[in-house]
Recover the amino acids of this structure.
């Protein structure tokens, strides 16, 4: 992407803010960077160059790692992390509907059923 200099505007190639009149950097391709984006890009490059997965601690080549926040993860650890972050809600609903012996879950399920019956009765009464 060439640097954008429309009417003297110098735009950061990463975040899109106008860096004309501000401290800025220019890469070998002629693109402008604000200092914040430049620092985050350098940090990302260093994390990938180190080649260590934050999840398992194993060494990988840079192209085998993904950067999330301030850490790098291999594909296997990335999948595990995604399952942990997204699986909790669905598993809780399945447990509630499976007739679990847990008292709190049974209480919540009972309250949901009673609420549904009350709403159905109110709608039925309203329609008459």
């Amino acid at each position: 992407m060439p640097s954008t200099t429309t009417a003297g505007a110098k735009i950061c190639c990463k975040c899109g803010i106008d860096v004309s009149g501000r401290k800025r950097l220019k890469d070998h391709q002629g693109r402008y960077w604000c200092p914040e984006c430049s620092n985050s890009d350098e940090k990302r490059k260093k994390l990938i160059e180190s080649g260590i997965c934050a999840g398992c601690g194993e060494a990988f080549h840079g192209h085998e790692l993904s950067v999330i926040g301030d850490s790098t993860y291999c594909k296997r650890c990335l999948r595990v992390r995604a399952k942990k972050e997204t699986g909790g809600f669905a598993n809780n609903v399945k447990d509630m509907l499976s007739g679990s012996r847990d008292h709190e879950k049974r209480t919540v399920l009972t309250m949901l059923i009673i609420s549904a019956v009350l709403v159905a009765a109110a709608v039925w009464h309203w329609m008459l």
Notes: The longest helix spans residues 103-127. The chain has a mean pLDDT of 80.
